[in-house]
């Protein structure tokens, strides 16, 4: 096993993810593309503990500097079909970050990202799918025309407890031209909410009004 892989949490017999986060930070700080390539390759390792840890390192790198993981964007799309939920989750986290810097890629893979949202059993995978779609929508008018109606439709049908969370994730897609539609869709559902959910949604509406 290489010195780099030996830094993974599993190979240090650690149950926490701190070693993986430390490794991700080091790879980014040194702009270590060769090291990142090795980690990316081992997302496909036969040992599920190693491939889980490598996915963890890769999405942590994406959160810090998504440009560094864009060469592996196709891998993340492939992992959306994985039978391992941890790999699906890690892949969509990375893709949500990639959408900020390479929206043309995520636009080409809208169907895969939508499917992840629609069949996702983990709330985080659904949330990150929405983030990926929102950041992609914000990049170009042509993307917005296709994605934004889909996001509005989701807001009209999602479980009421998810409205505030999902509306907040859609905010990056909101601009002067579409904010009225967004705000109108939120007001249609605001009476379903109470307490902190109601307060949170009112805050999101105020943010949108100022855009």
Put the structure in a nutshell.
This protein has a domain at 1-99. 67% of the residues lie in helices and 0% in strands.
Overview of the structural elements:
- This protein is mostly helical and 211 residues long.
- The chain has a domain at 1-99.
- Helix content is 67%, strand content 0%.
- It has 12 helices and no strands.
- Helix 4 (73-79) packs antiparallel against helix 5 (85-101).
- The longest helix has 17 residues, at 48-64.
- 38% of the residues are buried.
- The model has no long low-confidence stretch (mean pLDDT 96).
Features:
12 helices, 211 residues, mainly alpha, single chain
Describe how the helices and strands are arranged.
Blueprint: H1 18-29, H2 33-41, H3 48-64, H4 73-79, H5 85-101, H6 103-108, H7 110-119, H8 123-137, H9 141-157, H10 163-170, H11 179-187, H12 195-209
Strand content: under 5%
Morphology? elongated
Distance between the termini: 52 Å
Rg over CA atoms, rounded to whole Å, is 18 Å
Which class best fits the helix and strand makeup?
Answer: mainly alpha
* Chain oligomer state: single chain
Helical proportion, percent range: 55-70%
Please give the count of helices: 12
* DSSP strand tally: 0
- Contiguous uncertain segments of 5+ residues: none
């Amino acid at each position: 096993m290489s010195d780099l892989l030996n830094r993974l949490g599993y190979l240090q017999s650690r149950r926490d993810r701190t070693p993986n986060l430390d490794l991700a930070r080091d790879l980014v700080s040194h702009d270590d593309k060769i090291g990142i390539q090795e980690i990316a390759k081992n997302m496909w390792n036969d040992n599920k503990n190693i491939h889980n840890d490598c996915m963890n390192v890769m999405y942590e790198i994406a959160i810090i500097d998504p440009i560094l993981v864009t060469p592996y964007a196709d891998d993340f799309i492939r992992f959306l079909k994985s039978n391992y939920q941890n790999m699906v989750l890690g892949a969509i986290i990375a893709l949500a970050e990639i959408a900020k810097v390479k929206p043309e890629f995520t636009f080409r893979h809208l169907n895969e990202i939508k499917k992840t949202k629609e069949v996702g059993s983990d709330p985080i995978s659904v949330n990150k799918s929405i983030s990926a779609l929102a950041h992609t929508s914000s990049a170009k008018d042509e993307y917005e025309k296709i994605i934004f109606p889909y996001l509005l439709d989701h807001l009209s049908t999602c479980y009421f407890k998810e409205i505030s969370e999902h509306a907040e994730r859609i905010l990056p897609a909101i601009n002067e031209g579409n904010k009225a539609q967004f705000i109108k869709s939120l007001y249609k559902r605001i009476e379903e909410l109470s307490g902190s959910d109601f307060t949170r949604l009112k805050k999101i509406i105020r943010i949108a009004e100022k855009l």
